[in-house]
Specification:
The chain is mostly helical and about 230 residues long. The protein is about 60% helix and about 5% strand. The chain has one domain (about 5-230). The protein has 14 helices and 2 strands, in the order H-H-H-E-H-E-H-H-H-H-H-H-H-H-H-H.
C-alpha cells in the first residue's frame, strides 16, 4: 500500500525534494520565504497534482505559502486553527499562524492524523475532496482526463499511488461519501479547506458544489467564512 501522507504532500506540491532543499533553514526562514503580504496566499504550486488539476482553468489562488512548503501539515494546521478560532468566537478573517505556532504543532494534533469515520486514512479523503472539487465544473472531460493521465505519469508516483489517482480522475464525484468520511468537526474544516483550494467561487457550478459540501458537512457559517478568507477570498 502506498503512503497516503506522501501522496497528499505530492498533491499539495510539497515533495521530498522540497524538504531536502529547505533542510538547512529554520521553520521561520522557510515560512518567511513563502509568505507574502497576503499571508498564506500564492499561486498553486508548480508541478503538484493540484496544480495540474487547475491547469486548465488558469491561475488560482490557494493557501500557498505554507501549504506549498508544508503540505499536509500546513493544511491541517490552518484548518485546526480556524476551528479553534470559531470555538473561541474570534474574527472570521483569514487564519494566520506564526512560525512558532506552526513548529509547535505535533503531527498527532492535526485533524488528518486521526482515522476517517470508517477507520480508513483521512489523508485519502482529503485527496478525494480536492480531486472532486476540481472536477465540479465538469471541465475534466475524457480529453482532459487523458492529458492529466500523461501529466501524472511524469510526477514520479509509484504504481499503486498512480493507479489510485487515475481511478479518482475517472470516477464521478461522490460528495456524500466524502462528507460521510468525516469523523470530527476539525476534519470537516480540513475537508472544506482542501476542497476550497480547487474551487473558483466566481464559477457558478463550483460555488454551488462548495455550498452543497458545506451543507453536508454542517459547517457553521462563521467557520466557513474564516476558511474562505484563509483560502484567498
Amino acid at each position: 500500500m502506498f503512503d497516503p501522507k506522501a501522496l497528499l504532500d505530492q498533491v499539495l506540491g510539497s515533495s521530498a525534494a522540497d524538504s531536502a532543499r529547505n533542510a538547512g533553514q529554520s521553520v521561520k526562514g522557510r515560512l518567511d520565504q513563502y509568505s507574502g503580504s497576503g499571508g498564506f496566499v500564492r499561486g498553486a504550486a508548480a508541478g503538484s497534482l493540484l496544480g495540474l488539476l487547475l491547469g486548465g482553468k488558469g491561475a488560482r489562488k490557494m493557501v500557498g505559502g505554507v501549504v506549498g512548503y508544508g503540505g499536509a501539515a500546513a493544511l491541517g494546521a490552518l484548518a485546526l486553527k480556524a476551528y479553534q478560532n470559531y470555538q473561541q468566537k474570534k474574527s472570521t478573517g483569514p487564519v494566520s499562524l506564526t512560525p512558532e505556532q506552526f513548529a509547535g504543532l505535533t503531527p498527532d494534533a492535526l485533524p488528518h492524523s486521526q482515522p476517517a469515520a470508517d477507520g480508513g486514512s483521512f489523508q485519502l479523503v482529503l485527496i478525494r475532496a480536492m480531486v472532486g472539487a476540481a472536477k465540479a465544473d465538469g471541465h475534466i472531460d475524457a480529453t482532459e482526463q487523458q492529458r492529466l493521465f500523461g501529466e501524472v505519469e511524469r510526477l514520479g508516483l509509484d504504481g499503486e499511488a498512480k493507479a489510485y489517482v487515475f481511478d479518482l480522475l475517472a470516477q464521478p464525484v461522490d460528495m456524500a461519501s466524502i462528507a460521510n468520511a468525516v469523523a470530527t468537526p476539525e476534519q470537516g474544516a480540513e475537508v472544506y479547506l482542501a476542497s476550497r483550494l480547487a474551487i473558483d467561487p466566481d464559477v457558478p457550478a463550483e460555488r454551488a458544489y462548495l455550498d452543497a459540501l458545506a451543507s453536508r458537512l454542517k459547517l457553521p457559517a462563521e467557520l466557513r467564512a474564516q476558511l474562505d478568507a484563509t483560502s484567498g477570498g
